[in-house]
Amino acid sequence: MSLLLRAEARKVLATPTIWWLLLGTSAIGIAGTLAPLVVADKDAPNLLSDRTLQEAMHGAAAGVILVVVVGIIGMAGEWRFGQAGQTFLTTPHRRRIVGAKTVAYMAVGALFGIVAAAACTATAWIWYRANDVTLPLERSAVWLTLLGCIAVAVLFGVLGVAIGAMTRNQVIAIVGAMGWLVVVEPILFAASQPVFRWLPGMASISLRRQPADGLLSPGIAAAVLVGVLTVVLGLGARLVERDDVTG
Amino acid sequence: MTKRFDGPPVVDDVSFEVTAGTITGFVGANGAGKTTTMRMVLGLVTPTAGEALVSGVRYRDLPNPRRIVGAVLDDPGSHPGHTASAHLGILAAAAGIPRRRVTEVLDLVQLTEHARRRVGGFSTGMRQRLSLAAALLGDPEILVLDEPANGLDPPGIIWMRTLLRNLAAEGRAVLVSTHQLAELAEIAQRMLIIDGGRLVADTTLDALLNGTRRVVEMRCARPGALAEALIARGMSVDRDGDLLVIEGLSPDEAGDIAAEVGAGPVHWLNKRTTSLEDIYLSLAGSLRPGANGERP
What are phi and psi of B204, to 5 degrees? Predict the structure, then answer.
């Protein structure tokens, strides 16, 4: 497994698109942090309220959907450029590849989450200082929200690998995942919160502590996400193992 | 092995062995089943029936496959944004092959000066060389090469021919598919011909070339008289003006009969040589004019 992880690390390091997406995730995260602060009242009591802190800091995960894209590129990209054949010639037991990618893209997700969290924290700190307030990093509303954002990034890295394994088509996987998480789930949630709060995208919003009504508790949301990922990843690994590599 | 996707078998009850120290040519038209057969050997496609064994075990059961089998597929299988060096480095890392081997194989396929270039900018010939470098990465004893000379320029083809000869001379088993039959005739000791998913020939190149019908072409003073005499003796004769094409005789025998029946003098006598292309077309039924509506 360590050889496969090393190979995956080399692939990530050698793929420029992933680093552009890291930049994009951080930029969207900064925008997601600044947006609620710009419209918030600038007085200290409001800036230091749990809700304002959460609204600002959960912005770190605003661009985290790009981590799903990274995971999809890592898995489905194997088929896009014919890499799958070479990869499976080296490692014919294909589930090992899926396993290695899962671990590798958890790490990549963690990196994206940490970088985005750091960028957002710095942005918020500067904003608060500009308004003569010190960002209370010791408050749970700050660090728990940031931890939640990093956790979502880690899980979304796995989600990308799982979707990529299921579809093995990069374009379909990216369009499908983006459409589902950005459009379909919010519409369904708006239609019926008690039913559709169990969906993975909505669960991720709870985990990253976005202030909103009707969401699951973060603990249950994490369990839901892990459960969904386990099922999708298991199905994807089975398909990867079973299907012929013809191109 | 047999393989069906949807509909009739793409590979139909194909069975053969490839031995060490030889180059085995694998010939067939597009869609004949060559690539599917090779991918079944490599564990990328699962046979519907039968199995392929490499060194006595299935490919997936080999302890470190890249050190035992090297394969060229129809593409290097590299991300276009990766450099040649990075691509091989990734494969080497996964197989536990030392990094210095990447430098060695890049040198072997004459891509050293392009090592830092992105594969997306490579020509077809350079991509083929990179594929071969990947195949040689583990210094394998078996090579499975699907159209390795595709896109190579004439010097590249000569280089490839020499390389394959050297690899076989080192004791490696080489299975190589190609459309370039003349090239194969130069290097292969053994030939497999597949047509419509079925193996129609599995023999040595010598047996293939020597086992064909004898054909003699002759021009003489009285071709009509000679044709009548030959037909009377049960020979097959085609006449095109004063040219007779006679099957089943050597030039000496044909000349003797011409003298015997007074058809001489003989103006021209030629033993028609049979090329690998001729043999291939005679064996590959689906390529004969009129067969399946296709033409050669």
Answer: -75, 155
